[in-house]
Q: What sequence folds into this?
């Protein structure tokens, strides 16, 4: 933001007011890594839909490195039960990908429901995640799936998407611009069901996945909001089949895990717990085929 003359108040920064900066457009990941090591304070650009917003908020890069020419960051594959999605995959590409549609069709459906048409064509997976804005939905969607972020160039190789909101400021302390997000991976081998509920957005969204493990079935849910960071919720049930889950009981258990700080001016913690419980119950009813319990 900038102050106007004569005390007229604050106005949004325009990207046209940016001072000159150096632009690099590497054609390979190796070239990009070399550039980030040479310019550790450089701004890394993907689809640039969020970057324009950052310009208006006052960001003034001296060096900008665009990843748009790196083709390998646009690849999607599914091998040995591991779905790998390149960081430059746009929202529209992700929602239409044959690999995603065949392995986790609900992920493609959720991905295609976010943002606006213009942003879906321009915005990228990596940009959506690393912007670390509460209102962006891919961190909520992918955290429930246990997705892992893959990096090149720095000290960090792998981080879970859920770590975007770590309280210990992991990102501020250990992850700098020298780390390039190359892809996000999802283990689909143990995944039984996935769904996303955004009908109550902006107050609350819920992403929910059911996985099999040695102890039974684990239900992982992530509660998102435009006003608060996402919260990860989890419950393990001694069950061998997804139909054995009780949507009402599991939904209540998950909602009870929301911390008090999840409440805000838009909704008290009691209301948010109730709302998350309803959304979890609705998703689990769909998963189990028991609509009456939803």
A:
């Amino acid at each position: 933001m900038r102050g106007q003359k004569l005390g007229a108040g604050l106005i949004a920064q325009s990207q046209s007011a940016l001072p000159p900066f150096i632009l690099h457009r590497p054609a390979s990941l190796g070239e990009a890594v070399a550039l980030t090591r040479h310019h550790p304070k450089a701004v890394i650009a993907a689809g640039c839909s969020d970057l324009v917003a950052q310009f208006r908020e006052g960001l003034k890069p001296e060096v900008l490195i665009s990843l748009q020419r790196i083709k390998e960051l646009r690849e999607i594959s599914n091998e040995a039960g591991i779905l790998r999605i390149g960081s430059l995959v746009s929202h529209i590409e992700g929602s239409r990908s044959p690999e995603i549609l065949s392995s986790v069709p609900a992920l493609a459906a959720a991905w295609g429901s976010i943002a606006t048409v213009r942003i879906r064509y321009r915005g990228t997976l990596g940009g959506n995640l690393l912007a670390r804005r509460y209102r962006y939905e891919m961190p909520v969607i992918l955290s429930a799936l246990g997705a892992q972020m893959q990096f090149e160039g720095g000290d960090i190789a792998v981080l879970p998407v859920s770590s975007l909101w770590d309280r210990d400021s992991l990102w501020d302390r250990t992850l700098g611009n020298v780390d390039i997000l190359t892809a996000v991976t999802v283990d689909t081998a143990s995944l039984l069901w996935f769904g996303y509920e955004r009908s109550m957005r902006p107050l609350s969204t819920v992403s929910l996945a059911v996985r099999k493990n040695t102890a039974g079935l684990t239900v992982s849910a992530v509660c998102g909001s435009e006003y608060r960071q996402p919260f990860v919720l989890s419950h393990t049930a001694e069950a061998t089949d997804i139909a054995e889950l009780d949507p009402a009981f599991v939904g209540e258990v998950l909602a009870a895990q929301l911390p008090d700080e999840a409440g805000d001016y838009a909704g008290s913690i009691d209301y948010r717990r109730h709302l998350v419980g309803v959304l979890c119950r609705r998703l689990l009813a769909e998963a189990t085929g028991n609509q009456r319990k939803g």
